């Protein structure tokens, strides 16, 4: 079976730039800082029980989701490391927040299970792609939208528990964002699975022809 380079037949966004090998760039620094925010949030929320401080860390981590990618394109500093760090930071924020929120009953375990099941589905698809010589598929705009909604929902849900004066309004807004984020998260997951299946069929067809 012939092996193809990772991303060989995968569509890219029209504003994508060819990634370089830079490490010390401003976008990568922002991504590193976002990664460091994950253990800080967990400590503040689960150990120190400093909900307001945890809310600030979570809000900063969520609202800066798009900043590193925007700066990378603006400054022509798109890098392979950045392409790995950005989605990694997003997933760690989502997973860490889900675990923390479930532990303190901010969100029900069913919501957490639904998001974790999608992650397991994607991990299985990535494992299959690697067997055929492909790397991770490029992030789709539906997945980006879902991530944005979830990262926006979590601080609002935390606000609903930390500040009683705005609990009703914040809870309604937070859960509206969260449920839409969950739906789009699964839609994006389905799109990745379909894309992976097409690549696998193409690789098998190429191998059979060879």
Shape: globular
Helix content: over 70%
Question: Count of helical segments?
Answer: 7
Number of strands: 0
Beta strand %? under 5%
Structural class of the helices, strands and pairings? mainly alpha
Give the termini separation.
7 Å
Radius of gyration: 19 Å
Q: What about the largest sheet? A: none
Succession of helices and strands: HHHHHHH
Query: Poorly predicted ranges (pLDDT <50, ≥5 residues)?
Result: 1-16
Q: What would the average pLDDT be, to the nearest integer? A: 82
Give a description of the structure.
By secondary structure, the protein is an all-alpha fold. It has helices spanning 26-47, 51-63, 67-74, 80-103, 109-131, 141-162, 167-209. The protein is globular. Mean pLDDT is 82; it is low at 1-16.
Name some characteristics of this structure.
7 helices; globular; disordered N terminus; mainly alpha; 210 residues; single chain
List the helices and strands and how they pair.
Layout: H1 26-47, H2 51-63, H3 67-74, H4 80-103, H5 109-131, H6 141-162, H7 167-209
Provide a short characterization of the protein structure.
With 210 residues, the protein is mostly helical.
């Amino acid at each position: 079976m012939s092996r193809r380079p990772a991303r060989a037949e995968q569509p890219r966004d029209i504003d994508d730039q060819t990634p370089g090998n830079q490490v010390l760039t401003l976008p990568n620094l922002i991504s590193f800082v976002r990664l460091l925010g994950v253990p800080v949030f967990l400590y503040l929320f689960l150990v120190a029980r400093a909900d307001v401080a945890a809310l600030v860390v979570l809000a900063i981590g969520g609202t800066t989701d798009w900043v590193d990618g925007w700066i990378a394109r603006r400054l022509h500093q798109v890098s392979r490391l950045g392409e790995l760090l950005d989605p990694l930071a997003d997933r760690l924020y989502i997973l860490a927040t889900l675990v923390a929120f479930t532990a303190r009953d901010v969100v029900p375990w069913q919501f957490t299970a639904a998001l974790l099941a999608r992650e397991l589905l994607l991990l299985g698809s990535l494992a299959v792609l690697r067997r055929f010589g492909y790397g991770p598929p490029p992030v789709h705009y539906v997945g980006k939208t879902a991530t944005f909604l979830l990262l926006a929902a979590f601080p609002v849900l935390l606000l609903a528990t930390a500040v009683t004066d705005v609990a009703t309004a914040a809870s309604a807004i937070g859960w509206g964002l969260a449920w839409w984020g969950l739906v789009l998260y699964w839609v994006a997951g389905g799109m990745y699975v379909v894309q992976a299946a097409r690549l696998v069929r193409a690789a098998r067809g190429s191998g059979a022809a060879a």
